[in-house]
Amino acid sequence: MRAGVLAATGRVVAFTDADLSYAPEQILQLLEGVEEGWDVVVGSRQHVDTQTVVKAGRLREVGGRIINVLTGLVLLGRYRDTQCGLKAMRADVGRLIFSHAKIDGFAFDVEVFALVERYRLTMHEVPVEVENSERSTVNVARDAFRLVRDLFRIRRWGRLGQYEADPNEFPPTATAA
């Protein structure tokens, strides 16, 4: 993910999960949000207007709720869904975020949210239409352990100043923290 965002040459970068739980045309809604002026636009499975075509298994659903609670330990904002696999951002903002991001695994989404907060970027959540897939690579037990470990890493790195960015790195409309 990091290499792709850092190599992007367009004005906007967008990405989705490999299991294709979201129809590709949903990316248009995110792109519109970026064009309206948001730095980052993310899908949210918890948005009041979200439609679930195929529900996730009970274990994944409960796991997702636990993840949302745990991310509250790291993030200041109360986001409905950090793990939704549909995100878009201005390319310059993406380069700022991913040049400082350290997490390569399941918790990279939470780190993106943490850096959006740290760099005082704007973020907007939009509803999605989700069709949960059996092709998912999520293993609740394994990924829960890794997520908790990475949440503590993100929190520690933030406290140690390891996410500090030079003010010259900030895109013109972003505000240096």
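Second entry:
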Amino acid sequence: MQNTIYIKHEIANVINIAKIITIHYFEYGKDYKFNGESHDFWEIIYSDKGHVCITRGEHEFMLEQGELVFLRPNLYHNICSDGKHAANVFIISFDTNSSAMRYFEDKVIKIPDRLKGLISQIIAEGKSAFILPMPDPKLRELIPKEDSMIGAQQLVRLNLEQFLILLLRHEQQTKINNQLFTSKSKFDNHIAAQIKKLLEDHLFDKITVSQISEQLHYGKTHLSTAFKKVYNRSIIDYYTFIKIEEAKRLIREENNSITEISTILKFDTPQYFSKRFKQYVSMSPKEYLLSVKVD
């Protein structure tokens, strides 16, 4: 019997991440300052909340919320708060020789909402794969967790590669939505995004699921199911989460007392605010303030 001949196709790698050097998620106080550095690998800085001052070579600029800057190897760079506002920043550094990365050299890009979930996945898998204590800008080596979930390190790399490839497609104005979501998923994403916007628009007052249902003209069960599917948390849980995140920012800015922050964010009482804060942050508001104070 004659053997059938098959041709094995070698997969082309557009972007291949050889090594991950550091992963950070920083919650900067309003007076944070870094000393600046340069190194022989790539670095990405993403402003998740607020804005930060970036020095890139001899050029200084403000990195706005939702923007990402690429720092090519051996380029001097620095980061600091603006002296008035707290900010949350994701930073990852990595080694790659892929020629496609040349496109990103010194680019500042506004990240589309549909790709922000991949950043969250990179952070989540990073926490699963490595020991990431309180953010330390002096961290020089990732220490693997002995009890990490299977494949966590590989998923950090794969999620980062996917993010970069999809971002490259986005920059080249290709239609990636059709390749990522079915029509049902698109609809759920649309509804969930509307809910998310309503919650964020009512950050400093109160809105209920019933009120959201009335405004969007969909049943509460349908809205809750779609939101949970997209964001993996309930509507109320997310609403509390963003209020606590805003509370953390206000605490770091040190312009209001804990009681005033509780009132600003429309918690029923300061005691209830402190209880919910501790549930989400694992420390009281006062303990959190002490943990982020600049030495």
